[in-house]
Specification:
With 95 residues, this protein is mainly α. It has a domain of 58 residues: Cytochrome Bc1 Complex, Chain D, domain 2, CATH 1.10.760. It contains 3 helices and no strands. Helix 1 crosses helix 3. The longest helix has 42 residues. The model has no long low-confidence stretch (mean pLDDT 86). Bound molecules: protoporphyrin IX containing FE. The site of protoporphyrin IX containing FE has 21 residues, from helix 2 and helix 3. Protoporphyrin IX containing FE binds next to helix 2 and helix 3.
Length: 95
C-alpha cells in the first residue's frame, strides 16, 4: 500500500489531496477513468475505462480515507510510546 510500483503510493495520494477532499474526489474519479498525469512525475496514469463511476468513487473514497487512518495510527503509536516510556521511568524509580 505504501511502496512505489507504478504510480504513487495510495498513502501519498491521500496525504497530498486530503486537505481538498471534496473537490479532489470528483477530479480523481475522472482521472482514474480517463487517465492523465501532471501530479507525480513524467508517467501519466493510463485510462481505466472499464471502471464505472461508482467503482471509481468507492476506490477514491477509500484511498483518501487512508490519511485520517494514518493520522489515527500515528496518534495511537505516540500514546503507546509515551505510556511505555513513563512505565519504564516509574519502574526505574521504584527499583
Ligand atoms: C482502478 C485502478 C486505479 C486506481 C483506483 C488508481 C488511482 C490513482 C490515483 C487516485 C492517482 C492520483 C492522481 C493524482 O494525484 O492526480 C493515480 C495516479 C497515477 N496512477 Fe493510477 N490508479 C489505477 C490504475 C492505474 C494503472 C493501471 C496505472 C498504470 C499502468 C496507473 C498509473 C498511475 C500513474 C503513473 C499515476 C501518476 C499520475 C500523475 O502524475 O498525476 N494507475 N492513480
Amino acid at each position: 500500500m505504501d511502496v512505489v510500483l507504478l504510480g504513487p503510493p495510495y498513502t501519498a495520494i491521500a496525504a497530498l489531496h486530503s486537505a481538498r477532499k471534496e473537490v479532489m474526489l470528483e477530479v480523481l474519479i475522472e482521472k482514474i477513468i480517463s487517465g492523465g498525469g501532471g501530479n507525480w512525475g513524467m508517467a501519466p496514469m493510463v485510462p481505466n475505462d472499464h471502471v464505472t463511476e461508482d467503482e471509481a468513487r468507492a476506490m477514491t473514497e477509500w484511498i483518501l480515507s487512508l490519511e485520517s487512518r494514518r493520522a489515527k495510527e500515528h496518534a495511537k503509536k505516540r500514546a503507546e510510546l509515551t505510556w511505555e516510556r513513563s512505565s519504564s521511568l516509574i519502574e526505574k524509580e521504584t527499583l
